[in-house]
Amino acid sequence: MEREVEQLLKIALCTCNGKIDKKCFEKLKEVFDVEIFSNLCEEKPENFFNIVGCSYRAVKDLGRLQLDLNELVFLKQEDAVRKAELLLNAYGKLLDVDRDLVEVNVDASLLVETNDVEFAKKLQKVFDPLYIVTTNEKMRGVGIPILGKVEGFEGELGNFKVFVNGINLHTGESVSEITVAQLLLQNLGFKKDGVFGFEDVLDAVSNVGEFVKFKAIEYDESKCAASFNGISGCNLCECMHKCLFRGEKIRIEHKSCFGCGRCSALCPTNALKFSLMPENVVREIIDVLSQYEGSKVLLYVCEDAVGKIFGNGRTETFFPVIVPCIAALSEVEILYPLLRGFNGVYVLHCSDCPHGDFRGLELAKNLCEAFNVDNLVSKTEFDVELVKKLVGKDSLDLSFVLGGKNKREALVEIVKKIKEKRELKHSKIEAVGFGKVKVNENCTLCDTCHRICPNEALKKEKGRLTFIHGLCINCKLCEKLCPENAIFVAPENIDLNEFEIEKVVREEEFLKCPRCGREHISKREYLKLSEITGQKFSLMFCDDCRPVVIFEGLYREIFGEKNEPS
Fold this sequence. Notes:
This protein has 566 residues and is α/β, with parallel strands linked by helices. The chain has 16 helices and 32 strands.
């Protein structure tokens, strides 16, 4: 059955005018419907493909999935067809991902910071209206010149509000706000779609008009711990490009999103999902590639670094997983291959990534170091000798399967499995987004904390409140909403001694319902509520039995003992 599914993959590959031996591609016809082109970007076939093996932008409309696999399928190696088969079937998992589209309408308005009159005149041929914020009074007659400076802006591609302190050189009126589609600014210290430095002016030109883009991030409010009833909680997600805003719920500017996926990797509850390459699909890709029987290395490589491995695919067995950015990978996706039979994981990233730090990679490396695991490396250059060393390492496990758990649940399972394989070198790891709960004597074992916990780090059962350190995201919602001021969450580095252990943090005697015998309320909570309400009798009964008992009492009071309800 699996082979029948594989045969449905229709793939276009290109020899790039003879740079790649056509005979190598012919081998793939054993397992796939492959069409081979000598110059795909110019031949423009009429057929539509599942996978187009070329990264050139001109061929993006020829298939559902565009990947430059020409140099990455190792077709001169031993077991070449098997390796290519697994690699292409793994990437085929991305074909089943449903993605929503965002419509973007960008008019020709632009605000530019410049004192260069000639440069402004060239921009005026393309952009209208053109707002020029300048300190050069000779700018009169070009566009709409504003003598002053830009003090800030907000918004997204196609709709920016720019805050200006200046004077319109044509009218003499003061200017404080301008609405434009795009910005061209000096000394730009960050990247945001629609906001460019002078070197990217052509990108601003290409944006003008109507187009659609994939919505990179999906938001599930039901899983989010950012707030509850107006109380602020988790603040782990962030966007370096100012496309994510936190309030009672998360708001994302999809039109300006770069699609790096970093915010999703930082979200421990999976409230943010990276739809361009969802983590569950990354796990499925790992599961497929793990079927290769020999020694192997998984190579995570960002799109901008793929060129570094071209021509090196015939040295050792490594399977590349191309991701939009290494920042999109959480610690789970990086560690998981080590428990699926891979001898090592090689992370190849940019030397100066514009999307922020690689928090998932750093935590994964720290965990490996704590367990004395040396099967994970990260570099900004591709080193064949390092691949050879990793291929020679012993894998941690072959049979571990992660499934669909969220990031924290998955990490707890991974740590538990590594503990079975390796001894701890040290137990403390610096990390953000973890906490430890302490409960004092005020606790009545009411239901507030465990019901509000977004990741089920707190659970209540049979008179006991339990806590799992690895599941705590330090949102402090339990602390802020506890009616008894009984719970305190301390920001805590990871403690691997307790990471996956379910510990009892509070235990109370529970009273049984006199009618059904079910334990339903702690003695402490009963005494407190009965004192407040004066309802000592009815509170002894559980929620199911209490209405029945009250009804029976009223019936007897009205009709007497001889006419009890049946």
